[in-house]
Amino acid sequence: METRSQWGTRAGFILAAVGSAVGLGNIWRFPAVAYENGGGAFFIPYLFALLTAGIPILIMEFTIGHKYRGSAPLSFKRMNKKTEWLGWWGVLVAFVISTYYSVIIAWAISYSIFSFNGSWGTDTEGFLFGEYLNLAEVPGQIGSLVPGVFIPLIIVWAVVLGILFKGVKKGIEIANRIFIPALVILFLIIVIYALTLPGALAGLDAFFAPDFARIADPDVWVAAYGQIFFSLSIAFAIMITYSSYLPKKSDITNNAFIVGFGNSSFELLAGIGVFAILGFMATAAGVGVDEVVAGGVGLAFVVFPAIINEFPFFNEFFGFLFFASLVLAGLSSLISITETYVAGLVDKFNISRTKAVLFGGGLAAVISLLYATQGGLYFLDAADYFINQFGVALIGLVEVVMIAWVLRELKGLQTHANGISDIRLGSWWTICLSVVTPIVLGYMMFGLFKQNLL
Ligand code: PHE
Ligand code: NA
């Protein structure tokens, strides 16, 4: 049997984990979620979710990967023969996410190029949906491949699979050592530029204005937990996979804090940049910031191009910076999602990494072509909806309940982590995982079922 691959350096592991965490969720999801859920006041439930669920689960997953030294299915199997399925569930969700996450990166590549000559024009909505995606009239109708999406999509997969072929140290680690510092620099330039725009302060005022009354609303807490789960890439088998490549002597707990706070810092930075820009737009149009707020695909591919058209100077350069950062943030996350099932296949079937990348990644790439058709956006919406319902919170809930209550593994994991980490895990960690998190996630799932069934 081959010996397990390893990260070359501690910084390499941290950058790769931060690379997985920092993604589209930070740039287009967080600012809108925070704004809609109490603005400045949202930071209270958000920090609570980070400290009681985000970082504790991150520590738990890092410890599982490190202790059992396997991809998620193998680690869970080594923990207890009966729990291998839990790992495969995460792997399956990761696989589905990768099929559409790759498509969004492909759009961002096209838009980086369109930035240079403003070829999205002024009717940005018409351009995205009409011209670029060439959407079918009827949802469910596949239609033909859209060349503008197809070509960049092939590039995305070629880059990701190329990096994964090279392995953990020479591929994933080196890519993140380049992508993440580059991303931080590009994004800092964006934020500094954005803050100089007229109206930027009005945007920040709107973003940070606290609406403390909202804290009493349980939905706001649910939103905070949902954001933390998606944003930290936890409960998807990813962080277990990455930590299985750590050397024996590794300070897991400290690493988890660095990754958790690093991701949140980037989220805050993105919130400031996005709202400074929305403030500019609102001021220029003479309307309130609330009239221009958007998130998701609409923010990145409709609202932002429209605003960038109006910038007083450097439009093309700025457009390129923004979409290039989406590409870098997205690629480093896609690498981690894809590695999750590559590692699962290698461990399960004892095949070479090259074969696993070809089969697993190749299959995902072929499926992703479905979203490059004229029906693409409809399928993308459906997949994303499915994942949000049956992925994120549900796996997280099952995972903590199994480990804390069914297998009673928390103590063992705690001892393992404390044996190698500077920060000692006390009873706060066990209480967060066995009581606080299951209650909040249980409540979340109950709400989801009620909403869908009644
Ligand atoms: N954490 C990434 C983000 O914030 C997204 C992601 C989710 C990546 C799930 C991998 C798995 O965008
Ligand atoms: Na994130």
What is the strand content? under 5%
- Percent helix, as a range, is over 70%
List the ligand species.
phenylalanine, sodium ion
- CATH C-level class is Mainly Alpha
Inertia-based shape: globular
Instruction: Give the CATH architecture.
Output: Orthogonal Bundle
Major sheet characteristics: none
Keywords:
single chain, 454 residues, mainly alpha, 76% helix, 0% strand, binds phenylalanine, binds sodium ion, transmembrane, transport, SNS_sf
Describe the fold and architecture.
Its main location: membrane. The chain is mainly α and 454 residues long. It has a single domain (10-453), classed as Hydantoin permease (Orthogonal Bundle). The protein is built from 19 helices and no strands. Helix 3 (43-68) crosses helix 4 (72-79). It is globular and about 60 Å long. It starts with 9 loop residues before the first helix and ends with a helix. Bound molecules: phenylalanine and sodium ion. Residues 21-23, 25-26, 231, 263 line the site of sodium ion (NA). Residues 20-21, 23-26, 97, 230-231, 233, 236, 238, 333, 336-337 line the site of phenylalanine.
Can I get a quick summary?
With 454 residues, the chain is mostly helical. Helix content is 76%, strand content 0%. Residues 20-21, 23-26, 97, 230-231, 233, 236, 238, 333, 336-337 line the site of phenylalanine.
